[in-house]
Amino acid sequence: MRLPKIFIAGMVLALGAATPGLAEKLPLEKPELKLGFIKLTDMAPLAIAYEKGFFEDEGLFVTLEPQANWKVLLDRVITGELDGAHMLAGQPLGAAIGFGTKADIVTAFSMDLNGNGTTVSNEVWAMMKPNLPLEDGKPKHPIGAEHLKPVIEKFKTEGKPFKMAMVFPVSTHNYELRYWLAAGGINPGYYSPSDITGQIQADVLLSVTPPPQMPATLEAGTISGYSVGEPWNQQAVAKGIGVPVITDNEIWKNNPEKVFGVTAKWAEENPNTHMAVVRALIRAGMWLDENDGANRAEAVKILSRSDYVGADEVVLANSMTGTFEYEKGDKREAKDFNIFFRLFATYPYYSDAVWYLSQMRRWGQIPDAKDDTWFAETAKKVYRPDIYLKAARSLVADGLAKEDDFPWDSDGYRAPASDFIDGLTYDGRKPNAYLNQFPIGLKENQTVTGADVSG
Fold it and tell me: What is the Cα–Cα distance from 91 to 89, expressed in whole angstroms?
């Protein structure tokens, strides 16, 4: 039987000197914390850090609180109602550039790699499936958006707009969905300072729906598809209302997903507490991935509880235990669908930040041209690998992590990679050259209102 959280935290603080690994802990500026999250599988590091006692080991009394949507979550971090939160990777960056809410948010911890999917309605799937190439009698993956294009054109001839949902304008899901659509020759639309709908010149109308509401919105016929994190793609399969057609790992292999964010002011005022939180989250990531995912079944049980994700265990297990189900009965091996620590998943790479900024520029959320130096400086303002490595070094010193678990010599940039569905190469040091490769999207000095950006 677990003791009350506040009692346990106080006991850890009192006995810390006698606990292995806690002998020389720095004093915490704020031991009682309220952290926010959205009901998604990738909030797992927060749940595990709490449930396995990693926060307690740091002398932290943590309350985890689900939030209604991403805007509410961000606003509550900014106002100080939350000390920090599970965030979309684009949220701290969007706040830095002033797209939506302007604020100084930093992240010293990446929550995971991969974890999203794009699902279409049964009606759309029935129109797509007959024209898909087959492999062993099943649709061959990855499925490119060029196979969705005839469906969109049919809707258009019938006078119906083709509507899809994503979770937030600066979400990974928005950029991944746009990337996939554009790679298939479909224009997902642009933003401008005077029109922030993101639907300028769009072939597909993308709008915002909170993650847990995606399946119901699809079932109601309000949208024809959506891009969201788990378990809400697998929920559509379980309910028989839709079919996931592609995962984010198939769009960009091992892409960064969520981050843990706090305000820059909070980080400055609470450096020891911040490092303690990062230590606990690193340990949670390690636990989730250790022994080839041996702990995933236990993690699924924890996440299925209503105070965390609140989805059925079988639905969560579909993606959390090394598989992913597309069409009902078409369950495939997907060992890397969720990565929480392997491949340096928790390290906050500058190049990850630059990729998100490049997509903000590509679709007009950054309306004017920026040189490569601006991208690098903005990334370094938000992403804090220095804090991460300090926390990691202390874990190694305490015997709680291994030296080779962390990229000590990294300059913050991944090597150039071409693991994208369109085969284009991304080099985080050259974002403008990257943008110039795309047939659809802003490039060089183009603006939405001042140039032909139809591609």
Answer: 6
The better pLDDT of the pair 13, 124 is held by 124
pLDDT of residue 444: 82
Asked whether the beta carbons of 206 and 189 are under 8 A apart, the reply is yes
Residues 85-92, mean pLDDT to the nearest whole number: 97
Encoding tokens for residue 357? Answer: 């900024």
Residue ranges per domain, the chain? 5-113+257-348+384-405, 116-253
Q: Distance (Å, rounded) from C-alpha 146 to C-alpha 221?
A: 23
CATH number (3.30.70.100, 3.40.190.10, 1.20.1640.10, 3.40.50.1000) of 5-113+257-348+384-405 reads 3.40.190.10
Tokens, residue 39: 């009901």
CA trace torsion 449, 450, 454, 455 (10° rounding): -140
The topology (CATH level 3) of 116-253 is D-Maltodextrin-Binding Protein; domain 2 (3.40.190)
**Digit-coded pLDDT (tens) for 156-186:** 999 999 999 999 999 999 999 999 999 999 9
Q: Phi/psi zone of residue 27: left (φ > 0), alpha (ψ -120 to 50 degrees), beta?
A: beta
* pLDDT for residue 3 is more than 50: no
> Are the beta carbons of 330 and 125 closer than 8 angstroms?
no
**DSSP count for the chain of H helices, then E strands:** 19, 16
The yes-or-no verdict on residue 228 having pLDDT over 60 is: yes
Question: What pLDDT, on the 0 to 100 scale, is given for residue 180?
Answer: 98
